[in-house]
Specification:
The chain has about 400 residues and is an all-alpha fold. It has a domain of about 180 residues. The protein is built from 15 helices and no strands. α4 crosses α10 and α11 packs antiparallel against α12. The termini are far apart. About 5% of the residues have low confidence.
Length: about 400
């Protein structure tokens, strides 16, 4: 009996079959390839132009945030340039106060850093004690390596890198220049915001486009300002709670830890993780036992859980809630491109983009995926169904539809 060979499922597929989609739809493939290239080019441009684009993004966010203050000052008959200067002075004073709250305690903490490092290293060695047998085995395996004969001595060129002080000075100069550029750009954005808004709305081709543009400007100001002000108040209370917890647990410089908790909490997800790591290191370098060292970290973790799962959803509500996945992706993307400052401006930029998507019919689905549900405008809603006519109306319609009956003339 001859055994028949089983035919493969792929025997009937021609080699060119997988490429038929490309042959039949060359436009789609071209558009997808161009979209990928555009995205890569934009990422490269944002990374290369970081020193120029980052101050512009920060100034844009600050101008939207300070615009309501300028409106209030202009309402009391203060000239617009003076109102812009007063708003910027207020913002600068708040930033200086927050920096002074952290800078002086941080300098004292840095002075004691070597001693804290030794204590933390001792505690880490205690944590590594259960893994000591595995470490010894790995060292013995490393000792069995074949020792090759030493190569003849050769000359090596050592490139001397700039010292720590030189790097600090260069970073300080860049920071001062960018901060000045942010203030100058924010000043001009504040004094020209109304003119720019009116021109942008006036040059829309249709009435619906003008109404849509006006709503975009209105909602961007409301949403960004409301979001930043609300989260600033929440983060102030988070900083106070963290500072009081550190003070009660005996951690030095509780004022500094409260200020750091307040500032890092502006960066969703990543900021609290960084704060927990700093508190864990400070606890290891301050306390004598591992249990005491874990208390500050656990206390801030509990504060963050209450704030993220109870306080923020209750105060902010569903209208301003954003998709957590979108927040993680956007914050990670801008932090990867522009560093910590990019993480700070990531959420305001995401809110602006969401407002634009909500008011653009072609991008409304993207806005719904980012956060709030898709809401139909009255013009896009389905027309109401007509009511069924009653019996009287039907009789009237039938009577009208029947042709008139002519009566026969009488025969004389």
């Amino acid at each position: 009996m001859v055994r028949q060979r089983r035919v493969s499922y792929f025997a009937g597929i021609t080699p060119t079959a997988p490429f038929q989609v490309v042959e039949r739809n060359p436009g789609i493939v071209t558009a997808a390839s161009l979209a990928i290239l555009v995205v890569l080019a934009v990422c490269v441009a944002l990374s290369v132009g970081r020193d120029f684009l980052l101050p512009i993004a920060v100034a844009l966010v600050f101008s939207v945030l300070l615009a309501p203050i300028c409106k209030v000052l202009e309402f009391v008959w203060i000239p617009r340039p003076l109102a812009a200067v007063m708003s910027l002075a207020t913002a600068g004073f708040v930033a200086w106060l927050a920096f002074a709250l952290i800078a002086e305690p941080a300098s004292r903490w840095i002075e004691d850093a070597p001693q804290l490092m030794r204590r933390a290293e001792r505690h880490l060695q205690e944590l590594q004690a259960p893994l000591k047998p595995l470490t010894d085995i790995s060292k013995e395996v490393d000792g069995l390596a074949i020792v090759e004969p030493a190569a003849p001595a050769s000359r090596t060129v050592v490139v001397k890198e700039p010292g720590f002080a030189s790097a600090i000075m260069a970073s300080a100069q860049t920071f001062i220049v960018q901060t000045g550029f942010v203030f100058v750009l924010c000043f001009f954005l504040l004094i020209t915001r109304e003119e720019f808004r009116i021109k942008f709305i006036a040059f829309r081709p249709t009435l619906n486009a003008r109404v849509r543009a006006a709503r975009v400007f209105r909602d961007v100001s409301r949403r960004v300002t409301g979001y930043i002000v609300t989260f600033s108040i929440i983060n102030v209370f988070v900083g106070l709670a963290a500072g009081l917890a550190c003070w009660q647990l005996g951690l030095p410089e509780p004022l500094m830890w409260g200020g750091l908790a307040m500032m890092l909490n502006f960066i969703p997800f990543l900021g609290p993780i960084i704060m927990i790591g700093l508190l864990g290191f400070a606890g290891l370098g301050t306390f004598d036992t591992l249990l005491q060292a874990s208390f500050p970290m656990l206390a801030f973790w509990a504060i963050n859980i209450v704030e993220a799962n109870l306080v923020t959803p209750t105060i902010v509500g569903k209208r301003m809630m954003l998709n957590p996945l979108a927040i993680i992706l956007v914050v990670s993307f801008w932090t990867w491109l522009w560093g910590p400052v990019g993480g700070l401006v990531a959420l305001p930029l995401l809110i602006m983009f969401k407002v634009v998507c909500d008011h653009t019919p072609q991008l409304r689905v993207i806005g719904a995926l980012i956060g709030a549900p898709l809401v139909r405008t009255p013009s896009e809603q389905a027309p109401p169904h007509p009511k069924a006519p009653d019996a009287t109306a039907l009789d009237a319609l039938q009577a009208r539809a029947k042709p008139p009956v002519e009566e026969a003339a009488p025969v004389s």
